[in-house]
Fold:
Amino acid sequence: MHIVIAPDSFKESLNARHVAQAIEAGMAPILPHARFSQLPMADGGEGYAQSFLDQIGGERYHCEVTGPDFRPVTAEFVINREHRLAVIDVASASGLPLVPQDARNPRHTSSLGTGELIRAALDHDIDEIIIGLGGSATNDAGAGILTALGAKLLDGAGHPITPTGEGLGALMTIDLDTLDSRLKPVTLTAACDVDNPLCGPHGATTIFGPQKGGQEEDIRVLEQYLHRFASICHLQLGQSVCHFSGAGAAGGIGAALGGLLGARLEPGVDLLLSRTQAHSLLANADWVITGEGRVDGQTQHGKVPAAIASIAQAYQIPVVVLAGSVGDDCEALYQQGVTAIFPIQAGPCELSDALMNSKKNLIRTSENIARMIRLSSHRSTTA
Structure:
């Protein structure tokens, strides 16, 4: 029996590799003769570069950059010299966990560090940079990235704005002529974990601002400032950045990369699957175990469990999803190839306790799933 374990991370708890290890730790003692293949996944958010490193190899580099709240942080990126490729996580330099919970406010955070990380990657001999756009603390429409890469974002007096969501309120001019010239021959690919536009009721601010600490007034102001940014891009640069799919990813970083820097925007999990041997591994599985921190209606839109299930469905392979929590609106996943969904919590608990006990709960739940698989296998053999 071949069991492929292909989970995403459990946000603010376990990375995808540790989730996969916990699942195998629960299943292996019950299914001692099974062969397990771990395939840590990511949809463009936290751990995206690590997933590439795990699956195609490369070298990890660390550098100190400006964090989302302007404190220095140590971020990392991956270089694969064979493919002349760099892979960067927005979450590594500008991620929400880098901001203390009681200080989170997307009006005051910046993607500056992600731009500094891109600049560091350009020091290597590469042809392409893949940027995972998930897990950000920001709502600055990529103003920080643009600034770090040499663009001039100026106020009415010709002074540089502070590259934050709040700073966009003073924006009057965007000058891209001073961008780092090393960008020109490099292909930029943005790996999106969502398909939201920049503005509007389904845009970056309205949907994701509250998750980043934004209150009602913050959301109103930031939405206004993103419209301002989009208007300036259209009037001064002739670029429409507001409505294309993925523009709202990572607080509008998708808009800056796709609309102003010429990046291709692709669903992050599809991009990862297309660049690795994941398809052939999944095609030869008897069972597939996947999961993420929360499974709900959003999961069907480009998230790891849905993408994995879709592939497995083509080969009629059963798929079990493990989740830290399960919403009421995930019925569509059963039509996409998911066989069963299991929350890992033993009962009601505080979020802090759930995060702290994720590994233990994953092992326990995986053990029980293995017992069901063993029973199913036994009945099939004796039938």
In short: The CA atoms of residues 247 and 255 lie 4 Å apart. The chain has 14 helices and 13 strands. The mean pLDDT is 94.
